[in-house]
Amino acid sequence: MRYLTLSDEERQEMLRALGFSSQEELMREAVGNVPFMKVPKIPFLSESDLYDHILSLVSQNAWNLKIFAGGGAYDVYTPSVVNHILLRNEFYTAYTPYQPEVSQGTLQVMYEFQSLMAHLSAMEVSNSSMYDGGTALAEAVLMAFRLKKKYKVLLPKSLNPLYRRVIRTYLPDFAEVSEYDFTSSGEVDIPHLISLVDDRTAAVVVQSPNYFGILENLRSISSAVKERNVLLLTHYDPVAVAITVPPGEVGADIGTAEGQVLGLPLGFGGPYVGIMVSWKRYIRQMPGRIVAETTDNRGRRGFVTTLQAREQHIRRAKATSNICTNNQLVALAVAVYTVLLGREGLIKRAKTTFSKTQYFLENLPKHYEPAFKGVHFREVTVKTPMPAAKVMEALVEEGFLVGPVVKDLGENYLLMAFTDRYSKEDIDALLKVLSRI
After folding, report:
1. Which pLDDT score, from 0 to 100, does residue 101 have?
2. Residue-wise over 100-114: b if at least 16 C-beta within 10 A, else e?
3. Is 325 or 138 the better-scoring residue by pLDDT?
4. Which of 311, 337, 363 is the last residue before a domain boundary?
5. pTM for the model
6. Are residue 138 and residue 193 in the same domain, yes or no?
7. Residue 320: pLDDT over 80
8. CA–CA gap between residue 117 and residue 123 (Å, rounded)
9. Same-domain status, 99 and 221
């Protein structure tokens, strides 16, 4: 999409409507007081002149940052074949099947995406995608409320804080949210969790690996939760489950994930794709679209939208969601990536991610230490010898982007993430700079 410039008067009018006096003030409210943030002045120009001006600004960018930042979005490699398939006009011009029976190609892609996600999670059914991981988890909580006819949910304090905010935004006023602690190892404090379960509790949420990067003991959590007759909602990493226990094998009732790690670029926060998986017995309470395979009156294989349980199709009181579309184009990219790697490729990708995480932990310079002693995957929360924001600023000057600051733990805790994108030499360079700071 091309950028169309605004006049200074139009900018000021927009800023006044938002309650800000300047663009810098708006950016500070959006991303915080980031010391290295510079807001370029873009003059009122013709389109061709504006294009040249933007290129000149890009050429002045002194940073080509290696991104070791985490917190829910990661710098992963996107194979060129993904965009080659994605940008075929039969897909990117017709990815919302409002007349599904004449959109067989799109429906088949949705079916394949569902099959892949169900297989990865070891569960029976998947819908054909949600907006992103946070909204998928929030929708899973609402689904649990409908299933149990109870309206209390337990969230771990080790859950991504953005997800916690999304869930609280989604929930009705009468819903109750309680948060349970983690131990010194960074894992769920199971006794504290169990002490909060009562007869009003519908579901328990657990994230593995959690926000700190620690893999949870899902079997122990599941066993404790199931004894109390509440639903278990697991938010998982779709790469990690290639070498760890998937949610279906521990008896999770609903699984959710962010599909961005399956080959999607960072894209300034989106669009991403949420994954939701569950069991056939719960399928009528799943939000979003569900596509199924069938045969026509001549015996030919075909695909149909089996369930679209939203208010445009059924009575509002019976709707399971107000989601009015799906991220099908992004889901297609995830499906292409997953098929391209295959089972062995995903296992290799997961092992590579795990080994890079361990390498970083084993070579942390003195004065730095992991915040927790549990088993890490992809992310590490590091205790820094000075305020973490200062470490972030210094690393940017050296060409590395890390973070965010884990404010729930304090100002001296920093998150770092490791993917297939960067090599051992890049990690060595990061460690060398850390040792100098």
Report:
1. 56
2. beebeebbebbbbbb
3. 138
4. 337
5. 0.85
6. yes
7. no
8. 9
9. yes
